[in-house]
Amino acid sequence: MFDKIILNTSPVLNSKLREALSILALVLFSISAANSAKAQDPQIRLESLDRLAARASQTIDVTVDESMIHMASRFLNANKEDEAKLRELLKQLKGVQVKVFEFENPGEYTAEDIELLRNQLSAPGWSKVATVRSRKSSSGGGENVDVRFMLEGTMIKGIAVLIADPREIVIVNVIGPIDPEKISELNLLEGRFGIPKIGVGWENTKTPPKN
Hints:
This protein has about 210 residues and is α+β, with helices and mostly antiparallel strands. The chain is built from 4 helices and 6 strands; from the N terminus they run H-E-H-H-E-H-E-E-E-E.
């Protein structure tokens, strides 16, 4: 596109001008890429998993948006310790997504079925955390757990948890911001607002070290 604005001047000047415009294009591209990285969305897309519902013996699908969170927080008792903590946590949250697929038999889903989701969690902006293990796993070990944080400054912008064992897939997506010091309080969300008790050990979670 820049070639169209090159003036009909000396070859040397044209060369210099092209070089300057190339540098400008590179700078503009870098700024655009940086802005895109800053604008990473902590809400993951779960539509690719919808096809698993037909194979699952049970499906749980919960989406709680910001307006619902703020409305529900009004009914929490500020005089009760747990509810007071949860109320403070909910003031910052933008949303929560939970999907659970339970299968009668192992092998009713494949790695390809959750590949698009794993690709999202491997995108720039997400940092891997390896310190959480699920207490609820039909295989007993909870080794197939993938936990990711999206950080913004000193705050957690978003959390994504994928638990995949032979008979169950669990996805939890919490859209922040969340104070890392209060992450254990995410346990208080389970069993409330239609969110099932999944057994993610939030109290064992640590934010990943900064590079």
